[in-house]
From TrEMBL:
Gene encoding the protein: buk
Keywords assigned: ATP-binding, Cytoplasm, Kinase, Nucleotide-binding, Transferase
Main location (coarse class): cytoplasm
Catalytic activity: butanoate + ATP = butanoyl phosphate + ADP
EC number: 2.7.2.7
A Pfam family assignment: Acetate_kinase
Subcellular localization(s) per the UniProt record: Cytoplasm
Source species of the chain: Floccifex porci
UniProt protein name: Probable butyrate kinase
């Protein structure tokens, strides 16, 4: 097998992760935290590009790593319009969409395609993006709602969800991802629960728009009438309550904390409120897993749990006790994001997967009768 070197770049809200891979072996990795006062100097996220690029170059120089030896640069794919899963070439169009955050989601992940292409252009190599956050492979039945003209889209931890499914299919089931049916969860600061059928993520809960289980900073699914009453009672506007979707809901709303370790510590010390919040979150995850089992018609090869909270034995045990009647439950604590980006590029280089073109058009644009 030919050897390839891949540099992966994952810009986050307060840090930048980079890793250098030689095929599947990680040769170097670094996660650098950014001072909030430094980031505050930039009016727009895209304005941070030179700062983050120079920081990466400084780190690699300190580690005596030459970018001339890198075959592919892979960035986290933020800011893009909804597309099918897979590995994409960072074209000029993708670069521009990432820079403008075309999908309307303001997040530093949009710097990923930009950084990757800047490095690739400088060294005459390719830049890629693997399973960006806006992967949309929903089946049509998952799109319609009870309000005409309001159709579901999806925002999930696509990169980690798909890589977990690919690895489990290969290493445990000894099958291709396209030959399996799986329920895959990412349980961390946000919680994604998704149904994967024969290589497509056909349903899941939109964690940016308020669906799914309660999470450390997210309110999860709540009845519309209850939200309207909450707004009326407190004289809140839409802007007042929108942070509950991703920043101030869940653990934060109840107890003012977002750290799962702190929450479980309080619960273990006899705090009944903390214990109820923890168990309620797990209960809601279990309900969501059950609904995805129905989506897959009960034909489930495994339930896969990934993300930081999966380090909790209590969480895994509770889900296993409740959901094992559906399929075996497997725990993959942490995440494979950096590995996933490298693996996607290597699959393309090895000819196992076709490199896709980003069209800049929504992969789904409404039902035919709405056009």
């Amino acid at each position: 097998m030919k050897t390839y070197k891949v540099l992966t770049i994952n810009p986050g809200s307060t840090s930048t992760k980079i890793a250098l891979f030689e095929n599947e072996t990680c040769l170097y990795s670094k996660n650098v935290a950014h001072d909030a006062s430094e980031l505050a100097k930039y009016n727009k996220i895209s304005d941070q590009l030179p700062y983050r690029r120079n920081m990466i170059l400084d780190l690699l120089e300190e580690a005596d790593i030459s970018l001339e030896d890198v075959d592919v640069f892979v960035g986290r794919g933020g800011g893009l319009l909804a597309c099918q899963g897979g590995t994409y070439l960072v074209s000029d169009l993708m670069y521009e969409h990432a820079r403008n955050m075309q999908n309307g989601v303001i997040h530093p992940a949009s710097l990923g395609p930009q950084l990757a292409k800047d490095f690739a252009d400088q060294y005459g190599k390719q830049a890629m993006v693997v399973n960006p956050p806006d992967v949309d492979e929903l089946q049509d039945l998952a799109r319609m709602t009870g309000i005409k003209g309001v159709n579901r889209i999806i925002h999930l931890h696509s990169l980690n969800l798909k890589e977990t499914a690919i690895r489990h299919s290969k290493n445990v089931l000894h099958k291709k991802y396209e030959e399996t049916n799986l329920i895959v969860c990412h349980i961390g600061g946000g919680i994604s629960v998704s149904a994967h059928r024969e290589g497509k993520m056909i349903d899941g809960f939109d964690i940016v728009m308020g669906e799914g289980p309660m999470a450390p900073t997210r309110c999860g699914s709540i009845a519309v009438a209850d939200v309207l009453n909450y707004m009326k009672q407190n004289q809140y506007t839409v802007d007042d309550i929108k942070p509950l979707l991703t920043k101030s809901g869940g653990f934060v709303s109840h107890l003012g904390i977002s750290d799962a370790k702190e929450l479980t510590k309080r619960a273990s010390e006899g705090d009944s409120y903390a214990k109820m919040v923890w168990n309620t979150m797990i209960y809601q995850i279990e309900k969501c897993i059950g609904s995805m089992a129905a989506v897959l018609h009960g034909k489930v090869d495994g339930i896969l749990l990934g993300g930081g909270m999966v380090y909790s034995e209590d969480l895994v045990q509770q889900i296993r006790q409740t959901c094992s009647f559906i399929a075996p439950v497997f725990a993959y604590p942490g995440e494979f994001e950096m590995e996933a980006m490298a693996a996607g590029a290597i699959r393309v280089l090895n000819g196992e997967e076709k490199l896709k073109e980003y069209t800049g058009k929504l992969c789904w644009n409404g039902f035919e009768w709405d056009k």
